[in-house]
Amino acid sequence: DADVTQTPRNRITKTGKRIMLECSQTKGHDRMYWYRQDPGLGLQLIYYSFDVKDINKGEISDGYSVSRQAQAKFSLSLESAIPNQTALYFCATSDLGQHFSGNTIYFGEGSWLTVV
Amino acid sequence: SQKIEQNSEALNIQEGKTATLTCNYTNYSPAYLQWYRQDPGRGPVFLLLIRENEKEKRKERLKVTFDTTLKQSLFHITASQPADSATYLCALEEGGKLIFGQGTELSVKP
């Protein structure tokens, strides 16, 4: 089983619909992240959370919201999806305890979202 | 904030040759820099981390250098193989979070 699990893996939704992407991890890490990837643009950070009570905006948070339901769960919502949110979304985790030794990130397999 | 620049042009090399990828950053030198590999449609996978006080780091056929004067890291794959074909991303930490370059696609031809 994957250490970082994303659901759904693929979703097609219509403009204006609400969509939630869920992420769960079994690594016991404190930090969780949501990234978006568009072709040629690399990974852009949407939101990140250093622990259950800590939520921070990343580079491109507009149009997105998140919820950290537990240490192991971090969900990303698009309240009203629009076509330019069509992208590959990655959840990731890292260990706070490793911070000063190198904040290595572990990624999920990704969720393909298409907004039509 | 930091900006990371990687060569956006794909790198095409022959099997057996050494591939060299470049990562440049613009502002302060980070405490460490990381390299990841990403295959199409998959999540990036951590390869190597190099700290600011390390000039070079090796892991099997991989070698990373870190020049804080030039604000640059080089990533080398020696004796490259077609299985090394992938996109390689560099990343550095800013404010406790990792920011990534856009990646360089490497294609190794047999």
Q: What percent strand of chain B?
A: over 45%
Q: State the distance separating the first and last CA atoms of chain A.
A: 32 Å
User: What is the overall pLDDT average of chain B?
Assistant: 92
Morphology of chain B: globular
Keywords:
heterodimer; A: 116 residues; mainly beta; 7-stranded mixed beta sheet; 4-stranded antiparallel beta sheet; globular; B: 110 residues; 6-stranded mixed beta sheet; 5-stranded antiparallel beta sheet; 57% strand
How would you characterize the overall build of this protein?
Chain A has no helices and eleven strands. With 116 residues, chain A is mostly beta strands. In chain A, strands 2, 4, 5, 6, 9, 10 and 11 form a seven-stranded mixed beta sheet that branches. In chain A, strands 1-3-8-7 form a four-stranded antiparallel beta sheet, with no helix packed on it. Chain A is globular and about 35 Å long. In chain B, the strands form two sheets. In chain B, strands 2, 4, 5, 9, 10 and 11 form a six-stranded mixed beta sheet that branches. A five-stranded antiparallel beta sheet of chain B has the order 1-3-8-7-6, with no helix packed on it. Chain B is built from no helices and eleven strands. Chain B has 110 residues and is mainly β. Chain A binds chain B through residues 4, 31, 33, 35, 40-43, 45, 48, 50, 56, 58-59, 88, 90, 92, 94, 99-100, 102-110, 112, and chain B through 8, 31-32, 34, 36, 41-46, 49, 51, 89, 91, 93, 96-103.
